Amino acid sequence: MTPDSAGRRPDMRASDVDRDRVAEVLRDAAGEGRITLDELGERLDAVYAARTYADLKPLTADLPVGSDRPAVPQARHAAIQPGADQTLELNAKGGQISRSGSWQVPGRVVVRNPYGDTRLDFREATFLTDVVDFQITANWGSVKVFLPQDATADVQVDTSWYGTLDNRVGTVPTPPMPHFRITGNCKGGTLKVMYRTRMDEWLG
Q1: Euclidean distance between CA atoms 129 and 90, whole angstroms
Q2: Residue 165 and residue 171: Cα distance in Å, rounded?
Q3: CB 158 within 8 Å of CB 186
Q4: What is the pLDDT of residue 3?
Q5: 117-127 CB burial, b ≥16 within 10 A, e <16
Q6: What is the rounded distance in angstroms from the CA atom of residue 153 to the CA atom of residue 201?
Q7: Contacts of 90 (CB under 8 A, 6+ apart)
């Protein structure tokens, strides 16, 4: 079989990371209204049953990925802006917290949502300072944080008692991009910090 531009043959075995990337594209598509929730469920079942790249490729063949997706604006930020010393508090208990699109991020963000689901998308946010102190309390909950491309994060969160931490971003600050100092507790829960995932060209 003919390899793709990255040297991968369709019959090569897919990894868990490959399946997660495809799943992320499908969830984004559902959030944008491109596929229904029923279709999302069916395709996710197929994703996690897939064994090869050939099994995965048809699942996003009708969706815009990579260079076909609309461009996402880079985060707007400045060294110091009025309001940078303020604290943004987001509280729930066993519920949902979600922020995305255009919103202001001060120098300190506090999230409390034990047993709940938290999704914070900073990709189009306006940062009032280059360094954000981000404190999380989400024991037995789920937290997903999307950072602007090339933003960085130092994550020091307690995920003991069967919790998991998945940090997929750089840790060394790269000014002028924002840097996050993430602390707190997510015992028994899951915390993911990542850039927005894009599919490789072979899915395009």
Answers
A1: 19
A2: 14
A3: yes
A4: 43
A5: bbbbbbbbbeb
A6: 27
A7: 97, 99, 109, 110, 111, 112, 113, 118
DSSP state of 20: H
User: What are the sequence ranges of the domains in the chain?
Assistant: 16-70, 76-195
Specify the residue for token string 């990894």.
15
200 band by pLDDT with thresholds 50, 70 and 90: very low
- The token pair at 106 is 């001060």
pLDDT digits (tens, 9 = 90+) for 38-56: 888 888 889 889 888 888 8
Binning the chain into helix, strand and coil, the percentages to the nearest 5 are 20, 35, 45
Beta bridge partners of 110: 89, 135
Alpha helices in the chain (DSSP H): 16-31, 37-49, 53-56
CB 144 within 8 A of CB 169: no
| Contact yes or no for 27/36 (Cβ under 8 A) | no
Write out the two tokens for 7. Answer: 């040297």
Q: What is the pTM of this model?
A: 0.60
Q: What is the distance between the alpha carbons of residues 183 and 133, in angstroms, rounded to a whole number?
A: 8
